[in-house]
Amino acid sequence: MEGGDVFRVSSARISSSNIWRNSGRDIFSRSSVEEDDEEALKWAAIEKLPTNLRLERGILTEETTGQPREIDIKNLDLVEKRNLLERLVKIAEEDNEKFLLKLKNRIDRVGLQLPTIEVRFEHLNVDAEAYVGGRALPTILNFLVNILEGSLNYLHLVPSRKIPLPVLHDVSGIIKPGRMTLLLGPPSSGKTTLLLALAGKLGSGLKVSGRVTYNGHEMNEFVPQRSSAYISQNDLHIGEMTVRETLAFSARCQGVGASYEMLAELSRREKEANIKPDPDLDIYMKAASLEGQEASVVTEYVIKILGLEVCADTIVGDEMFRGISGGQKKRVTTGEMMVGPARALFMDEISTGLDSSTTFQIVNSIRQSIHILQGTSVISLLQPAPETYDLFDDIILLSDGQVVYQGPRENVLEFFEYMGFKCPERKGVADFLQEVTSMKDQEQYWTKRDQPYSFITSREFAEAFQSFHIGKQLGDELSTPFDRSKSHPHALTTKKFGVSKKELLKACISREYLLMKRNSFVYIFKMTQLIFMASITMTLFLRTEMPKKTFVDGTIFMGALFFTLVMITFNGFSELSLSILKLPVFYKHRDLLFFPAWAYSLPTWVLKIPVTIVEVATWVIMTYYVIGFDSDPARFFKQMVLLICIHQMSSALFRFIGSLGRNIIVANTFGSFGLLTIFVLGGFILARDDIRGWWIWCYWFSPMMYGQNGMAVNEFLGDSWNKVLPNSTDTIGVSVLKSRGIFPEAYWYWIAVGVSIGYMFLFNICFTLALEYLNPFGNPQAVLSEESMAARKAMKTGHPIELSARSSSERKSEVRMSSRVGSINGSNQNKKRGMVLPFVPLSITFDNIRYAVDMPQEMKAQGVAQDRLELLKGVSGAFRPGVLTALMGISGAGKTTLMDVLAGRKTGGYIEGAITISGYPKKQETFARIAGYCEQTDIHSPHVTVYESLQYSAWLRLPPEVDSATREMFVEEVMELVELVPLKEALVGLPGVNGLSTEQRKRLTIAVELVANPSIIFMDEPTSGLDARAAAIVMRTVRNTVDTGRTVVCTIHQPSIDIFDAFDELFLLKRGGEEIYVGPLGRHSSHLIKYFEGIDGVSKIKDGYNPATWMLEVTSTGQEAALGVNFAEVYKNSELYKRNKELINESSKPIPGSSDIHFRSQYSQSFWTQCMACLWKQNWSYWRNPPYTAVRFLFTTVIALMFGTIFWDMGSKRGKQQDLFNAMGSMYAAILFIGVQNATSVQPVVSIERTVFYRERAAGMYSALPYAFGQVMIEIPYIFVQTIVYGIIVYAMIGFEWTAVKFCWFLFFMYFTFLYFTFYGMMTVAVTPNHNFAAIISSAFYAIWNLFSGFIVPRTRIPIWWRWYYYICPIAWTLYGLVASQFGDITDKLDTGETVAEFVHNFYGFEYDFIKYVAVIIVGFTVLFGFIFAYSIKAFNFQKR
């Protein structure tokens, strides 16, 4: 038993067991089979083994022969695990429960207790802090003021201007084990905050009071992250891993909890009672409780019950790679926590993007495991369908941060009836609960007709609940504390990590290795780039052109060494963006305590060492002898070793900067500062003797200095440099070293190696510390208006407030009007309201539309013979004014495809068939003017306010005849219609990051189309991702729009009953793009139900069931096969089809006396107005984007001051050649760094705006040129300010000559240099699919530009075959202009006897008289890059539809 005890101790993890929670594995036992003697003997043999071995052996029946054999469970392979699961859980929906019950019976049979957790929260208050009103908009001014205030505030000099914002207010409750709890509440009612508080994960920036206990234990007595699992509503995953790998990694890190101890005890008791368990179940339980497996059975099981088998081996995907769908990502996020051993689950909106049947199935399997294995769970759902809602036992209803109801599901309606509100017949209870607390919707549910209605606030509900019988009961339970002695010893975990440190490290190493294989493209690309640069370097410094006779020859070799050093150092730069891209996922895993920071940072470092060696070796082998460095082989290897150390050091440095910056813009900026310092003070650009006393410490700290010294000493002390110069005692080598201030001693090589290795360790340790202690940047929420702030305050005090700026009578009428979409006074008012601008009602008919794409290669590979894949197979229909049509079908039926074809949004593929608009053939140019298209993804410029977005859209899309006053009125009206008035001043922000919530964004998308006053509107899934209330608001908007007499078509995924009732007609497609029902729905969908129930074999609809769900269920592919009908054929033979055909024929003839739509020009506004509008929007976008504009401005100022102090007064020194090199060095470094910084930072900005541009261009708002004009013009003033700031500081401090001409030339060249760099950055984005690609492509050119800039090698020494590149290198011309204008006309003598002007001419080949032409050339580059940007934006479309 020795071994067994040791093993048990090593794995004694007091964590909760989750084998049993983990779901419903349904087991088909083989009890009916008579016990095989053989099997019994084998079992007896296993029984005799000591415990630790007994838990690793099982009896597996062969699939083929049916023979039992003894197996070692550790060695189960994937196929065997899958077969085992197939036997246990064949079909997840049916067998899961049986499986779980078997599992439970086995445990109950020997009287084992399962650990359970009861969570209580008492008097929980959470407050956040926020700026209010105009101060919350991120303009450049506010940005600078906030920085100032923040720092003064930190020193306690000024009080904070932030205002506390209540999130949760005095909530209490109990969450019991073995019961499913549903958390409901309108958006921003505090659901996520409550779940985070229960899981012990609240951010440090919040003020929290009250307590949360598990089994009576406070949060600090155990590790909440291991005992409970919080499933976030954001899906963060590494895109390059497959679903199975993601879940397996998670399972490997979380371990198996206490299940090993439980199993040992179970096995011991079974042996005593002489019970033989079911062999399959036994293997499953043993396999699930052995830790350290790379792929556990639990992973397979979770994949099965979450319905992820289809995509188990597909990569998850991100914006770079196409991966699994949004709904599948959501399930992976859920699965990631379900594979772990936690006993309490807190799930935040796990159903977003899932259709209701999938949600039902997932919630149902969670429910089975919670009920049978006594887990604890709180799940918040957005729009639970009635059948999903019925799966829950308890409901918690939150509103405005207060608990309005907490208790059994059965009593919730009783409570609201006691308050005087009744849920109508055809309404989901969940939808009713979310609406009944809201101001707009409450009145329609009031039942006490004899009493006058007044709005009941959340606070009043919460107080009334205290006196309701359920509330009293809850209060009583909370007052008696939990009996801690009843808590199972394994229920709460006190160990920080799930498995041993060694296991965690192994898991991280294997994942990192996998990612490197998946990302091999990056490494291959870097390698190619390196070989390419090496070839250029070789041919540029070719040894036939490189004698070793004079001092100048030495400086050229010095340049070659410097360039090698720069290439190797900056080759690590890609580490920066790669490590930042993986940070969000790392923070998620770190906070869930998957692994410690060092387990993550160690593999990233160690596994990259071989890559470094290969890269450096390639470079050195290619260039060393070709350039003609010293031919001693020892020196060759010494150079290689030093470069390897330097490369490792720089990779570590960039990783550290990335983890410190945590955001690509910040990291790039601060990274550049650091780099600039070590770059300029590395001893090449500025000789050591010329460095000022106040910067010399930086010289000694600069890792590049040691690299430069080591490389130079290694080269110049070699035999080939032994020639002694005339009239001096030193050899050429030594004098070159001395002129640069390098120590001519051989031991400096070893110092360099030592220091590089030291720095490598230092940076890697700092990287780990940064990962361990820094948190990701918070996401700023939407701007709070003063009003919403007051409303929040009111909820705390309990006094309802009148919204300012509106009289109460106006408010009352508004509430009444919007209470029911179809109420009579509502529709009358609507009719009057939408009529400020007249429009022509138009119908759209289409006949026999076919759409096909080229057959994908994957399908051809599987042997599909056709060349085209048909996505729409001859669909026909007519959409008429004032009729709201729903376009439905299961996913993959071609809903969006049909809409894209009708709206003319497809960019590829083959379209056949006729589309007519009110009888005239559709022309895309005119059609874009009269149609609106609301895309499923809400794409808007992030830095403008809601009102500005609408103003902009109206300005560009309404006809020029409309004057501005009418336009303003119309915009106001649309905002009323879409209920966006309170958000007028809110910033739009980036989806999922900051700004508007999903549902507000949706309404904005609709409003942006409505202000164009279109006659036909297409909407792609306007309600996906919204909760019931938001969906109702959006649908109300849509309905209001239809009632104005417009033609509206919506694709819709999973409508609830009341949303479905809002539609007039239905267009139903089946998978493969064929129509199966086109026609009116009827009241309560009666026509639709009658049609489908009339088909033989279709089951009748249940009472109160959602017709939309029923219709999708009865027409599914499975049903078709079961009934043996083809619904498309049935439709083609029906009366309905004939009627529709007649209607189509009738509608496709023009009405007599009407005329075709005609516009004078393609766009509604003139070219000039388009330009102005684009510039107007860009102006606001830039002003409110401080991370880009203000940071760039600060960056330039700091760099200017730095350069000024480093090169203090060097412009006036003209005694030695080195003085001129120093002055030129300052210009070279500035151009390179500020220029590249400009180009890199503009890329993400343009990339985001470009997606908006695609949508706006498709909508016919403007052509490509005005957009390019706006984007290019807005940079001009910003860069002008940048140049002035930089120019004045640097010019004064470096002390160039103060003549007007020279100063103006200096500013001129600097200005256009910054400008062409910025345009170059924009241009690279315009020719590549996204900004990550753009960054890679553009960086390749910076290196070449750097090499040919004329600083490392002067033009006079460039071999004739590379001279042409010098002439097309923009940096070279900038340097020409700067140096020639400063020094080209100076006649002072140097120490060598020639004048400055002669030296500039002889060494560099610069002529003073040529400056005018240089100026023209530089302006030419700027114009060229700007033009290429504009042309590429017009010509390339990277949006595939």
TrEMBL record:
Bilayer-crossing regions: 521-542, 554-573, 605-627, 639-658, 664-687, 747-771, 1190-1208, 1220-1240, 1276-1296, 1303-1327, 1333-1352, 1364-1383, 1410-1433
Record PROSITE patterns: ABC_TRANSPORTER_2
UniProt key word Signal: no
Principal cellular location given in the protein's record: membrane
ABC transporter domain boundaries: 152-425, 844-1096
Family stated for the protein in its record: Belongs to the ABC transporter superfamily. ABCG family. PDR (TC 3.A.1.205) subfamily.
Protein name, per record: ABC-type xenobiotic transporter
Organism, as annotated: Helianthus annuus
Gene assigned in the entry: AB39G
